[in-house]
Amino acid sequence: MNKGGILSKLRALMHNAAHVSQPVNAYIIPSGDMHQSEYVAECDLRRAYISGFTGSDGTAIVTDTEAALWTDGRYFLQAEQQLSGDWTLMKAGLPDTPSDAKWLSNVLPTGGRVGCDPALLSMEKWKPLSKELKSNGHELVGVNENLVDLLWSDRPDRPCSDLIILSEKETGAAWQKKVSNIRGKMTEEKTSAVVLTALDEIAWLFNMRGSDICYNPVFFAFTVITKDKVNLFIDPKKLTNQVQQHLSGVTFHPYDTVYKFIANLAGDEAVSKIWISSKSSYAIFSQVPKVKDAVALCEFFVWLEKAVPTGTVTEITASDKAEFFRSQQENFMSLSFDTISSIGADAAIIHYKPKPETDKEVTTEEIYLIDSGAQYREGTTDTTRTIHLGTPSQHEQECFTRVLKGHINLSTAIFPKGLKGHMLDSLARQSLWEIGLDYRHGTGHGVGAFLNVHEGPCGISFRVSPSEIGLEENMIVTDEPGYYEDGKFGIRIENCVKVVKAETKHRFGGKDYLTFEPITVVPLQKKMIDATMLTEKE
């Protein structure tokens, strides 16, 4: 089949409802495989098949009317010789050559959709490309059924070479020792699982080699390590008796079940965090739910930092903008309460809500506090951050840092299972008490799952409630100490935290011990922190 004929068939598939949920106006064909390998097996030479260019590096993009290929200076001459007249060569790295995102933004129709197999593009490439396209009114979408594969009738089978087992003398350490070291890092990072997708990393870990890719002694596999299991996703035909004996204790899964496994793992309430390299594919990343509320707030703070110096931002417009950014996230349903958007003295009013008659300009001269949250189909959020867009005073920094110390003190506490939250409340106040300061509200409340933002009967407060119950694993509560000076400013730092099991040396009375795992990942403003007041642990 000539390359022009292939392009016509590909363009037809880009609009075929049997293969794409909605038509795409452009389709990206990267060079890599599902492991983002530099060199790939013959079955993964999709870009070479569609374009005729066989260099090791390059990206092909086909639109409804054009076809372009980006490659670097090593391959300019080769690409010129191999590409047909249907293709435009984009010489990457030259000043006049647009990036793929810029080129797409220029050639796409308004509201264009760009498709790509999410298994073939790394997260570190997908994210900036998606962001630039979105900023120009376009959308990058995953097309799970690879359109080139549908056209490639004589595509070679995926290799399944024999595995070579290396001795400990050859590798320096048994694979079990390497897994133990990884689990040590997992404990340090408070992560429940590690996903390995790079083929050389997997070969190194298990002290095995293969020949699935020419000149690269690797084999096709994925690995997921949890606290109690090592999971290897691999073609069962590779698992000879000798290999199974070498990998005794490993749980084997079919190679193509890794995505469903990660999705199920991410949905497990006992799993707090999954560690994935940004070089892994977007398909792997997309199995883990997005931290969408934190994304919205980060976008809001970027906007706020740029907009406040123009003198056009008020408490109400800031509140509205925060809601706008949240509303752009998938499955956003509503806010979870009225946003507390407050500048200066208004921030000292703990449950302040701006109204037209009280609305003030947000400036660079005073502390700004925003306490806000949202309802998503996946859950409910409640986050408070306190920032200064100018220069905070030394007193404001000290007060903020003491609130932060209390926040950390509570968040890192280890306590017996079933302990009631009122017994932990003082941990958040200790640093403030040291200089005679305090705050007049509870330190934490339960949070529902796409339910009420204030959910009983658990909580963390100096007030003792007759209906209060003890803290149990997987409860979600807030950690929100603060400090307020009437007529001047208010400070509060609030995260949602998950109650998780703590690893302790002893279990007095046979009891389990618990701690908190922060699940809010919105940054703190560093200029508000006096780092000299923090301990090394803090």
UniProtKB/TrEMBL annotation:
Q: Which cofactor does it need?
A: Mn(2+)
Query: What Pfam families does the database record attribute to this sequence?
Result: Creatinase_N (PF01321), Creatinase_N_2 (PF16189), Peptidase_M24 (PF00557)
> In the record, what terms sit under GO molecular function?
metal ion binding; metalloaminopeptidase activity
Which SUPFAM superfamilies does the protein's record reference? Creatinase/aminopeptidase, Creatinase/prolidase N-terminal domain
Query: Which keywords accompany this UniProt record?
Result: Aminopeptidase, Hydrolase, Manganese, Metal-binding, Protease
Outline the extent of the Peptidase M24 domain: 294-499
Checking Gene3D superfamilies in the record gives: Creatinase/methionine aminopeptidase superfamily, Creatinase/prolidase N-terminal domain
**Protease among keywords:** yes
**Keyword Manganese set for record:** yes
Family listed: Belongs to the peptidase M24B family.
Report what the protein is called: XAA-PRO aminopeptidase 1
- Protein source organism: Elysia marginata
Q: What is the lineage of its organism?
A: Eukaryota, Metazoa, Spiralia, Lophotrochozoa, Mollusca
